[in-house]
Specification:
The protein is of the alpha+beta class. It is about 40% helix and about 15% strand. It has a domain of about 120 residues: 3-Layer(aba) Sandwich (NADH Oxidase). It has 14 helices and eleven strands. The chain has a five-stranded mixed beta sheet. The protein is globular, with a radius of gyration of 21 Å. The N terminus is likely disordered. It binds flavin mononucleotide (FMN).
Length: about 400
């Protein structure tokens, strides 16, 4: 479908599209990048691999998929964070990366339970790395036979999507629906609160837009995201991580040279402006907001917040509700400090004064929209490391 937006994007350069370029524009094939969604639970010959094939589908910041797994003995595994997959500018304390690893562990737990196993998880068994992660393991996990602890949220792992389309402006999100999300949380996962009235939703839209503006105007954070963008099928299938831009509009813009990583990083370029406008469009169609906070901010708290995060998202999926995080205002780089304080004040979560004080771990918009396609993933086998690693 060529939309008005497509025409604006491509502009005069559209005329150069022909031949092979046109064919690749019309025929998108991301089946390789999405293969792990089909492979999940297909029988890997080991209970841990079977459960891990679901865990790699966890939500995680910038789709960095920072997990590395070492299988230990017959029943255990060690989870590590890949130090080459950290987001040093947007996530200087590695808080968001740890949240993603917490979501990974929760999907592992749900998938293990389906097979009749409980998990014994020892978080940061060699100590909590602060102020940033180091090479120490994130979690030591043991599978223990334990029938009868299945969790209904498992049913939504394969259909969960981070939604980046406009939400239906004629469908409000009811209080009962948002309260039902809260039911998915266990006390240790953190606290979920929400707003769905116009005045509070508008106030949060303003904060989110401001956070987004600052992230885009701050050179290191803009650069980090731009360089992690994969544009078009070939790049995405080759590197199924980062921020993926695909479909006819993106392919067309790429083919005429308007859409490149470098152009996205160039303030004032059409690619830069389109990036800003696209995300603001998402913010503007928010129908409700919710946020997840924790009383502390230790690494273990962040892992548990990740479990809460994915549980909220799975519950939303089960209710047919679309969800997208807006993390900009929560980020710890210095230029964001004012907005960071503002969002903590707005939500009533105490602005952290010490490293371990309470804090906001996630902010999400909710609404109704057609579910989008599955995000790219690296196959499980590429995330396994040898026993002597
Ligand atoms: C801690 C964290 C922060 C995130 N922040 C954002 C965000 O600010 N904006 C956004 O669109 N997606 C955000 N995401 C969603 C990821 O980009 C998404 O999980 C990833 O691209 C994989 O896609 P999927 O969730 O559809 O599987 C965040 C996810 C996590 C876990």
């Amino acid at each position: 479908m060529v939309t008005r937006r497509a025409i604006l994007w491509t502009g005069a350069g559209a005329v150069v599209l022909a031949g092979a370029g046109l064919a690749s524009l019309l025929h998108s094939d991301l089946s390789k990048a999405r293969a792990p969604w089909k492979a999940a639970g297909t029988g890997f010959g080991d209970k841990r691999l079977d459960a891990l094939s679901y865990a790699v589908l966890a939500p995680n910041p910038h789709n960095m998929q920072p997990w590395l797994i070492r299988l230990d003995g017959e029943d255990a595994l060690m989870l590590f964070c890949d130090s080459g997959r950290l987001l040093r500018s947007t996530d200087p304390q590695d808080r968001q990366i740890v949240i993603g690893l917490g979501a990974f562990l929760e999907l592992l737990r749900l998938a293990a339970a389906e097979q009749g196993f409980a998990l014994e998880v020892d978080a940061f068994p060699e100590g909590e790395p602060q102020p940033t992660l180091d090479g120490r393991p994130v979690a030591a996990v043991r599978f223990v036979a334990d029938a009868g602890r299945k969790d209904p949220l498992f049913a939504h792992i394969l259909t969960r999507r981070t939604s980046r389309v406009a939400f239906d402006q004629n469908r409000p999100v009811a209080a009962e629906t948002l309260n039902a999300l809260d039911q998915a949380l266990r006390p240790e996962d953190g606290e979920f609160e929400w707003v769905n009235d116009a005045s509070n939703v508008d106030a949060l839209k303003t904060i989110c837009r401001e956070g987004w503006r600052i992230e885009m105007e701050t050179a290191p954070t803009r650069h980090e995201s731009a360089m992690l963008t994969r544009i078009g099928d070939d790049e995405i299938n080759a590197d199924p991580d980062g921020i993926s831009l695909f479909g006819p509009v993106m392919e067309a813009a790429r083919l005429i040279g308007m859409l490149t990583k470098e152009k996205m990083d160039e303030v004032g370029s059409p690619a830069y402006q389109a990036t800003i406008d696209f995300y603001n469009g998402n913010i503007d169609t928010s129908m409700a907001f919710g946020w997840l906070s924790t009383a502390g901010n230790s690494r273990a708290d962040q892992l548990r917040a990740g479990a809460g995060w994915v549980r909220l998202h799975l519950a939303a999926t089960g209710l047919g509700l679309a969800m997208q995080p807006f993390s900009q205002a929560l980020q710890e780089f210095p230029e964001m400090a004012e907005i960071y304080a503002e969002i903590h004040d707005f939500t009533g979560v105490e602005t952290p004064r010490a490293p371990l004080a309470g804090r906001l771990q996630g902010l999400f918009r909710f609404g109704y929209a057609k579910p989008g396609p599955a995000a790219p993933r690296w196959p499980l086998e590429t995330r396994l490391i040898a026993a002597d690693a």
